[in-house]
Structure formats: C-alpha cells, structure tokens
Design a protein that fits this description.
This protein has 7 helices and 19 strands. By secondary structure, it is an alpha+beta fold. The protein has 3 domains: 71 residues, Beta-lactamase Inhibitory Protein, Chain:B, domain 1 (2-Layer Sandwich), CATH 3.30.1450; 86 residues, no CATH class; 79 residues, no CATH class. A hairpin with a 5-residue loop joins β17 and β18. The longest helix has 11 residues.
C-alpha cells in the first residue's frame, strides 16, 4: 500500500509512553476472559505424584547435556522415556542431591540429577526436567481440544509438523485435528484445519498451558470461542479481509488496526502543526499515526 507523508513533529511529547509491558501488567489485574481461564488448570504434576511408567517426551537433542547414561540421549530426541524412580544420592562432594531415573524404549536407564536435597525437591509443586515434556500435559490438552472448533486469532502459523513458520490468517474458523508434543519452550503443538481451506490442509501452532500470568502463549493468545467479527457488525467486507491478512489502510480506526496488527509495543502522543497525533510502534518496525482516532500514516 502507498504511504502518505506525516505532519511535522515538534519533537515534544505531551504524554508518557505506554509500553507493551504496561498493557500486560494491566491485563494481569483484569478479570480473566473465558479463553484466559480455559485450560488454566492443566500443568505439571508434583514429583511426589509421579508413578513408574509416567511418560516424558525428549524434545531436544540437548537432553544429552543434562542426562547421564551410556545411551545416546541425543538420538532419543522425538521419543519418549518412562519415569522409574526418584531418590536421594550423594554427590561427588558428599552432599545429598536428587537423582531421577528414566527408562528408554530399549530398556536402558538414564539419569537426571537435581542439585537440591531430596526433601526440597519432593516439596515442589512441579519439577522441570530440562528438554523434556510431560506427556500428561499433552494428553490433557488433547482431551479438551481435539475435534473442537475455534477462531484462530494469530497469523503466526506453522506447517502441520511444526518444522516451518508460515503466514496465516487472523479470525478464521478452524477445527482442532490433533495435539502433539511441542518444543522444550512451548510444550504443546496444536494441529488444526482451517474450515475455509482445502480438506487436507493442516497447520499447527505451539502453545503453553497453565496460569495465564505465568505462561506466555496460552490458548487465549491463539484462539477465540466466538467469531471476533460479531463485535463489529457495521464493518465492511473489504476492511475485514484486510484485517484477516494483517494489513491496514488509511482511515482505519484504532480498533481495526489493533485487530489487524495486535497490541503495539509502544503507544504515545506528539504535537504537530495540525494538532495532537497518536503513534503506535511495533517491535518489527511497523509504525502507525492516528489523527482524531483514524489512521493517517503507516510505515511497514
């Protein structure tokens, strides 16, 4: 789209900047939406509840750094190991540490050591084993999502196997086809089919679970229960099509631009010869100017 010239800035900002962090803090104290509350009860099990046979998915070849074994842990990436036992053991300095034993699909034992005493580890509500994913989390999410239909709210999609990022659409309806283990950072990968796409067209997105205040990419950042367009009954089809493709045009309102591009990194106001203008900036370099509430300039 063609860009237009902005008004002359005086260089004087009349109001403090509002950053993305400020918005996140404000949202953290607000009443959670239905989407924010959804799946919030799903999380890791306390180590005292682990039973022999509990499955862990090895999400990264770097697991070989933290596990001790004669087995090649890097070759186990993409496979599951089973919890066997957790026990106190002496370290090389004679101090007590905690050892956790897992069993590989071939029957070999591999060990992860936490440097804290067993009593402290056992008192935790959760115990993270680096580069692994508790399959109980994946299974719980799959039970809730598989076969359900939601509206996708982010354009950050991946191929079905999660190997490559693709540019997707916002606010299209999709059916959840599968839930699989994700990465060491995002434990769940949600595989979905856009209902307006080809029958065999599949994509995926990585997701976190748990409390929305402590997780960064929860369900509500990816999906909505209801069609967001229903909140804007007067919006024309052309504008909505631009929004679904993450595009903006001159004359759009703040709400329309936020729908198209998401929450800006920084919001502020400046004085120009024409009056006060509001500016939005994004981490990827996108820059918007609003005059009297309407988009008057943008830079991609």
């Amino acid at each position: 789209m063609a860009l237009v010239m902005a008004g002359c800035f005086t260089g004087v900002e009349s109001t403090p900047k509002i950053t993305y962090s400020d918005v996140k803090r404000a949202n953290a104290t607000a009443q959670p939406s239905a989407e924010q509350a959804f799946l919030s009860e799903i999380g890791p099990q306390p180590p005292t509840e682990w039973q022999p046979g509990k499955k862990f998915y090895v999400a990264d070849p770097k697991a070989s750094i933290v596990f001790s074994s004669t087995a090649d842990m890097s070759a186990l990436a993409g496979q599951e190991v089973a919890f066997h036992a957790i026990r106190p053991v002496p370290s090389v300095t004679g101090q007590e540490v905690t050892e956790i034993e897992f069993v590989t699909p071939s029957g070999e034992s591999v060990f992860y050591r936490d440097n804290l005493p067993y009593a402290e580890v056992a008192a935790r509500q959760q115990l993270e084993v680096p580069f692994t994913i508790e399959m109980s989390i994946v299974d719980a999410v799959k039970k809730q999502l598989a076969g359900q239909k939601y509206f996708v709210v982010t354009p950050h999609w991946y191929t079905a196997d999660g190997s490559q990022a693709v540019n997707g659409l916002r606010y299209v309806e999709a059916e959840i086809v599968d839930v699989a283990p994700g990465s060491a950072i995002y434990p769940v990968r949600v595989v979905f089919h856009p209902l307006d796409g080809k029958p065999d067209e599949l994509y995926s997105m990585y997701m976190t679970v748990g409390n929305a205040r402590t997780s960064t990419r929860n369900f509500f950042t990816l999906f909505a229960f209801n069609n967001p367009r229903d909140q804007f009954p007067r919006m024309d089809d052309e504008t909505w099509d631009l929004i679904s493709h993450s595009l903006v045009k001159l004359g759009m309102t703040r709400d329309e631009c936020r729908l198209a591009l998401g929450t800006p990194q920084t919001v502020g106001q400046r004085a120009t010869t024409a009056g006060m203008v509001e500016y939005w900036s994004y981490s990827d370099g996108v820059y918007l100017l609003f005059e009297e509430g309407y988009l008057s300039y943008f830079r991609k």
